[in-house]
Write a structure and sequence with these properties.
With 151 residues, this protein is an alpha+beta fold. The chain has a single domain (14-147), classed as Roll (Thiol Ester Dehydrase, Chain A). The chain has helices at residues 37-54, 59-64, 138-144; strands spanning 12-14, 17-23, 69-80, 89-100, 103-112, 115-128. A six-stranded antiparallel β-sheet has the order 1-2-4-5-6-3.
């Protein structure tokens, strides 16, 4: 028997969609055991970040480039469909749809089995370290291109 895998799971890619399993913990809930609305924002962030990680894009590496860059969320619209509760096994499903100028268009959903919990439309902007919007570099666009929908 080998050593246990100590690397946390970044989920997996299913075609163009990234799937991240998430368990609801006590810290994610309000006093009734239901996920607090801000918890969904954290789940969505983890989904976007782990999608990028599996596509070969590391936030740390982006900051270490000769032309360092980062992302900032400029629009987040969430439709809450059902409540998630303590101990639920959820999946965060993320699709990067397109790049338009400095913006990345992203769709996300959280599901419990076949049941929709929350849907999100996210616009993230690529920025330099001074916070100015900039077009993502060609290598970043190339890493994400296989996952984009029709552009």
């Amino acid at each position: 028997m080998g050593a246990p895998d100590t690397e946390p799971s970044a989920g997996w890619l299913d075609g163009r969609e990234h799937v991240l399993p998430v368990r609801v913990y006590y810290e994610d809930t309000d006093f009734t055991g239901v996920v607090y609305h801000g918890g969904y924002v954290r789940f969505f962030e983890r989904g976007r970040t782990d999608f990028l990680r599996l596509a070969g894009v590391s936030h740390a590496a982006l900051l270490e480039r000769p032309d360092p860059l980062a992302f900032t969320v400029v629009r987040l619209a969430i439709d809450f469909r059902r409540s998630a509760r303590i101990d639920d096994a959820l999946q965060v499903r993320t699709t990067y749809e397109a790049v338009k100028g400095p913006r990345l268009m992203i769709r996300q959903r959280i599901v419990r089995g076949d049941e929709a919990i929350a849907d999100a439309e996210v616009t993230a902007a690529c920025i330099d370290l001074a916070g100015r919007a900039r077009r993502p570099p060609a290598d970043l666009v190339a890493a994400l291109a296989p996952y984009f929908g029709e552009v």
